[in-house]
Amino acid sequence: MASSQSNFVKTLRRLPLFTDLSDVELELIAENVSRLYFDEGTLIFEEGDVWRELLIVEEGAVKIVKSALNGRQQLLSIERKGSSLAEVAVFDGGRRKC
C-alpha cells in the first residue's frame, strides 16, 4: 500500500463513521476515493447546493460560514485535518441541500 493511501486509511480509521470497519474495508474505501485539492479561499459549496459526496479534510482546514442577506458571513465552524463534512450525502443519495 502506498504511503499516501496508508495515511488516508489512518485518517479514515479515526472518523466515527468508519470505526467499525476492518482494515480490508478501509483499504477498499481508500483505493476507491476521488481526491480533491482546493486552493486556500476556494468556495467548495454554498448553502442550498445539493452535495453528493462525503468530504474528509486531510490537510489544512475548511471554514463553514453562513451568509446573511446583507452579505456578511457568520463563522459556524472550522473543520480541521481528520474532520468529515456532508456525511448525510452518503446515506440519502445527495438529496439533502447544504
Report what the structure shows.
By secondary structure, the chain is of the alpha+beta class. The chain has two domains: 1-33, no CATH class; 37-98, Jelly Rolls (Sandwich). The chain has helices at residues 3-14, 23-31, 88-92, and strands at 55-56, 61-67, 73-80, 84-85. Strands 1-4 form a two-stranded antiparallel ribbon. Helix 1 packs across helix 2. The protein is globular and about 50 Å long.
List keywords for this structure.
98 residues, alpha+beta, Jelly Rolls, 2 domains, two-stranded antiparallel ribbon
Number of domains: 2
Total DSSP helices = 3
* Spatial strand arrangement across the major sheet: 1-4
- General shape: globular
- Straight-line distance between termini: 34 Å
Short description, anyone?
With 98 residues, the protein is α+β, with helices and mostly antiparallel strands. It is built from three helices and four strands; from the N terminus they run ααββββα.
Itemize the secondary structure elements and their pairings.
Layout: H1 3-14, H2 23-31, E1 55-56, E2 61-67, E3 73-80, E4 84-85, H3 88-92
Helix pairs in contact: 1-2
